[in-house]
Write a structure and sequence with these properties.
Blueprint lengths: L8 E4 L10 H11 L3 E4 L6 H18 L2 E5 L2 H6 L4 E4 L6 H8 L4 E6 L5 H5 L5 E4 L15 H11 L4 E4 L7 H5 L5 E4 L1 H4 L4 H20 L1
Parallel strand pairs: 1-2, 1-8, 2-3, 3-4, 4-5, 5-6, 6-7, 7-8
Helix pairs in contact: 1-2, 1-9
């Protein structure tokens, strides 16, 4: 049975933040801090290493009932029974992925322009990742979209939208005002030595912002 698609605080891993850290221990700290989903994204590891690490991560996310997504690698996602896979326009097409995974997994899809949202609405995906909202150091080839385009994406999308790219604690309030369903973060959590504390602070700002917006 699929977990609820809770994308509110969505952690994305990155090679640069794990040079001297254990992946499983670090992600467990973020989970204890309050993340609702994690995307396993590494570019410099072997397939075997990623598979073995993902097996451990699958156990961890099951224990805490947190969503596990795998970036790009549908084969690895299927091999460890992840909750989903996240792909971009240069990866395996979502309709092909859907044929492979059936309804057992969620599919996330990256978009970087509102003009692509209508196309994405027709795809067999479950959510859209939109960005980069702000300048970011985690990708060299990112396209800067800004808040206005994020707001337009939210308006046009028939799927939940997750904002990504340079989102920090102090930028969080203006991002949430666009009506996004979640925020994906890397450095706002992994950029701190105390990952659990950083996550708790991010979650606190998230909740307080939502409460202010409601009242």
């Amino acid at each position: 049975m699929k977990k609820e698609l809770d994308l509110r605080i969505y952690l994305v891993t990155d090679d640069s933040y794990f040079k001297d850290r254990d992946v499983i221990e670090t992600i467990e700290k973020a989970i204890k801090g309050g993340i609702t989903a994690v995307q396993y994204r590494f570019k410099k590891k072997s397939t075997r290493d990623m598979y073995e690490e993902l097996l451990r991560l699958r156990e961890l996310t099951e224990k805490y009932n947190v969503l596990l997504f795998v970036n790009d690698r549908v084969d690895l996602a299927m091999a460890v029974s992840a909750d989903g896979v996240h792909v971009g326009r240069e990866d395996l097409p979502p309709d092909v992925i859907r044929r492979l995974v059936g309804d057992e997994m969620y599919i996330g899809y990256s978009v970087n322009d509102p003009s692509l949202v209508q196309e994405a609405n027709k795809l067999p995906i479950d959510y859209i990742g939109f960005g980069s909202v702000y300048p970011t150091a985690t990708k060299d080839d990112y396209k800067l979209v800004g808040l206005d385009k994020l707001k337009e994406c939210v308006r046009l999308s028939e799927k939940p939208v997750v904002a990504i790219g340079g989102i920090t604690h102090y930028r969080l309030p203006e991002v949430l005002k666009t009506g996004v369903d979640g925020v994906a973060v890397v450095s706002a959590i992994l950029g701190f030595e105390d990952v659990e504390k950083a996550t708790r602070e991010f979650v606190r700002v998230y909740k307080e912002t939502l409460l202010r917006n409601i009242t």
